[in-house]
Every structure is written in structure tokens, then in C-alpha cells.
Design brief:
Elements: H1 3-21, H2 24-37, H3 41-66, H4 70-77, H5 81-112, H6 116-132, H7 136-162, H8 166-174, H9 181-192, H10 196-206, H11 215-244, H12 255-293, H13 300-304, H14 306-323, H15 328-352, H16 356-359, H17 366-394
Helix pairs in contact: 1-7, 1-10, 1-11, 1-12, 2-9, 2-11, 2-12, 2-15, 3-8, 3-9, 3-10, 3-11, 3-15, 3-17, 4-5, 4-15, 5-6, 5-12, 5-14, 5-15, 6-12, 6-14, 7-11, 7-12, 9-15, 9-17, 10-12, 11-12, 12-14, 15-17
Subcellular location: Membrane
InterPro entries: NRAMP_fam
Membrane topology: Multi-pass membrane protein
Length: 395
């Protein structure tokens, strides 16, 4: 593989992971917590970025060095553990995909006035179509990149129209007046929790980028992925902060839409439609691809029919949405539940990083191990606290 092809794959994996993270829940969580915490939310974002980078570097490096997907690594650590991890990932991916499909329907409703259910059906067909072409992986990479750039560009425009207090946000990012554990866990869970952090790692592995000689490329792709998602998070936070600072109350049924409409009027509302649809449909693609990548190594039959199982995964998500729906509070709770999967998956990876049967003669950096162990303990602790907080707010 030449250098240019390798870089294209690395960028594709980075955008697949980033756009998997930037879904309807991402937009809802960011604007909801900005309204609750105002400029102090900057600190939450900063801490979550540091945790995200530590988690993702550990996971992607071990997947690359071992040449195995996460479920096979987990089974190498403890037989049967890979099956448990896969069940959690697939169920979490399905739950989030229902929200993603709902978000896509909402986006088309804003743009064209059609019903959310019809929009969801259209969006499901678009996502399925990507996997029916001959070179589905290449199309998936390009699709994620194009829509990723569109989302970031439009959010930057709205951020400037909102005129946020950037100075105050910068100060509170390092000197917050209050700290919210639920917000930290939810953001980390929504960025590297559940299936999301494995999206790019498994994509690189499937493309043949593995082994110790590829670690430089893997590091670059992992950090790029977190950077892309974080840039979107920061600009969305600033846009919401600009609106909140003016004393405008966000619509609890659709917080991100009210941010864009308050900042840029009807044009802003249509921009929200584009961003919501782009965020949702790229997350549908990422969730389906990654969830199925967690079960395909368990059976040759699944591996041979991977494409059709992905199509079925998307179709089932679309069908369930038409029967259920997507409350804002449940999306936030789902983010915190996703955060609880991270201590398990990262803990397994850290154990595997020091097993010769998994990584051979590779020596995992001590600082990454310590950093990863700290993240496992901190996320487990904060995850339990935030889960109780989230359930209390629901009931």
C-alpha cells in the first residue's frame, strides 16, 4: 500500500469514528449541558478530550499490534468475555441507532417539511444504499468525510452569528465554578463509549493497517478522530453559549434546533436540519458497520454475509423507531450508559496490552497504561454516580 492510499484510509477511519460520535445525542447533550452549566461546560469538554485521547490511543494501538478485533482480544484475555463485550456493544449500538434514525427523520422534517417517519425511512434507505455498492468501505469513508466537513463548516458560521463570550468560556475551561460528573461521563460515553471508539480501529484493521510498524499512522489517525469530534463539540458549545448568554431559554424538546434558530433565524433553522441529518445518517452508518464488526469473527457465515447483516441492522433500527421514538432525556441517559461500557472495554485492552499471547514482543508504554488505568477507575466511579443522577432525573 502506497503512502497516499494509507493516508486516505487513516483519514477515512478518523472521520468514521468522529462522525459516529457526532450524532443526534451529541448535539442534544452539548446544547443541554451548555444551558445547565453555561461557560463551566468548557471544563467538562477539556477533561473529556483528555480522557478520550487516552482511551482511544490505548484501544487503537492494541488492536493494531495484535492484528485482532476487540472481541477476539477480549476472548484471549478471558474466554467468553469477548461474547459479553460484543452483546453490550451490539445492544448499545442498536439503541443509539434508533436515536440516530430518529434524528435523521427530524433533520428531513426541518429541511423539507415531510414527517419524521418518512424522513427516517428515506435516510435508512440512503444508509443501506452505501453498503450495497461494490466498494462500500471506500464510499463509507468518503461519505463520512464530506458530511463531516459540512457539519463543522456550518456550525462555525452559526457560532460566529451567536457572538459567544469566548473570554469567559476560556477562563471557565480551566477554572470552573462547578463540576458536573454526569456531563463528563456522558460526553466521554458519547465520544469513545460503546461501539464508537472501535469504529476507526476496526476500520483500519479491516484495511490491513496493523502491526508495530503501523503505530505512527495509527496514533495520528486516533488523535485526528478525537480532534475532529472535539472541534465540532467546541464550536457547538460556543454557539449554544452565545444564545444562552443572551437569556434565551432553549426548547427542551429540541435544544439544538432552538440554538441555531435563535442565532441565525430561519436560515439557522435550516442549517440545523442539514447538520442534524448529516450527523444522524453518518452515525447510522458508523454504528451499523462497527456493531456488526463485533460479531463477524464468531462465525464464517456471519463474515460472508456481513454486508446483508449491516443492511438488516439498519432496517431493524428504522422499524423500531417507527414504533418507539426518541425522548431527549433518554438519549442523555443512553450516553451515560455507554460511558459505563468504556471501563470494561478499556480495562480488557489494558490487560491484553501486557499479554505476550496477544501482542507478542510489543512493549506498551507505561505512561499509556497508567493513563488508561486512571481512566478505567475514574469512569467507573463517575459512571455509577452519573447513572444514579440520570435515573433520578428521569423518575
Amino acid at each position: 500500500m502506497d503512502h497516499r492510499s494509507r493516508l486516505r484510509l487513516l483519514l477515512g477511519a478518523a472521520f468514521l469514528m468522529a462522525t459516529s460520535a457526532i450524532g443526534p445525542g451529541f448535539l442534544t447533550q452539548t446544547t443541554t449541558f451548555t444551558e445547565q452549566l453555561a461557560a463551566n461546560f468548557g471544563f467538562v469538554i477539556l477533561i473529556s478530550i483528555i480522557i478520550d485521547i487516552g482511551a482511544q490511543l490505548n484501544i487503537w494501538r492494541i488492536i493494531s499490534v495484535s492484528g485482532k478485533p476487540a472481541q477476539d482480544i477480549a476472548n484471549s484475555v478471558l474466554p467468553g468475555l469477548g461474547f459479553i463485550l460484543s452483546i453490550l456493544i451490539v445492544l448499545g449500538g442498536l439503541a443509539f441507532n434508533i436515536g440516530n434514525i430518529a434524528g435523521a427523520g427530524l433533520g428531513t422534517n426541518v429541511l423539507f417539511g415531510i414527517s419524521p417517519k418518512m424522513g427516517a425511512l428515506f435516510s435508512g434507505i440512503v444508509a443501506i444504499g452505501i453498503f450495497l455498492v461494490r466498494e462500500a468501505e471506500k464510499l463509507m469513508d468518503r461519505f463520512a468525510q464530506i458530511l463531516g466537513f459540512i457539519m463543522i463548516g456550518l456550525t462555525i458560521y452559526v457560532m460566529f452569528t451567536a457572538q459567544p463570550p469566548v473570554g469567559e468560556a476560556a477562563i471557565r475551561s480551566v477554572a470552573p465554578e462547578k463540576i458536573n460528573f454526569l456531563a463528563i461521563v456522558t460526553l466521554v460515553g458519547g465520544t469513545v463509549g460503546g461501539y464508537i471508539t472501535f469504529a476507526g480501529g476496526h476500520r483500519l484493521l479491516e484495511a490491513g493497517i496493523k502491526g508495530k510498524e503501523s503505530l505512527g499512522y495509527v496514533n495520528r489517525s486516533a488523535i485526528s478522530a478525537i480532534s475532529i469530534a472535539s472541534i465540532m463539540r467546541i464550536f457547538l458549545f460556543l454557539a449554544a453559549l452565545g444564545v444562552v448568554a443572551q437569556g434565551i431559554t432553549l426548547d427542551p424538546d429540541n435544544p439544538p434546533a432552538s440554538v441555531f434558530q435563535a442565532a441565525a433565524g430561519n436560515v439557522g433553522y435550516k442549517i440545523f436540519g442539514v447538520i442534524m441529518w448529516s450527523a444522524a445518517v453518518t452515525s447510522v452508518v458508523g454504528a451499523a458497520y462497527t456493531s456488526v464488526s463485533f460479531i463477524k469473527t464468531f462465525s464464517p457465515l456471519i463474515e460472508r454475509n456481513q454486508k446483508w447483516i449491516i443492511v438488516g441492522f439498519i432496517a431493524v433500527s428504522t422499524l423500531i423507531f417507527s414504533l418507539v421514538g426518541k425522548p431527549v432525556s433518554l438519549l442523555i441517559l443512553a450516553g451515560s450508559l455507554n460511558g459505563l461500557i468504556l471501563p470494561l472495554s478499556l480495562g480488557v485492552i489494558l490487560i491484553a496490552a501486557h499479554k505476550k499471547s496477544v501482542v507478542g514482543d510489543y512493549k506498551h508504554p507505561i505512561w499509556l497504561t497508567i493513563f488508561g488505568a486512571f481512566i478505567v477507575i475514574a469512569m467507573a466511579y463517575m459512571g455509577v454516580i452519573s447513572l444514579f443522577e440520570g435515573m433520578t432525573s428521569l423518575f
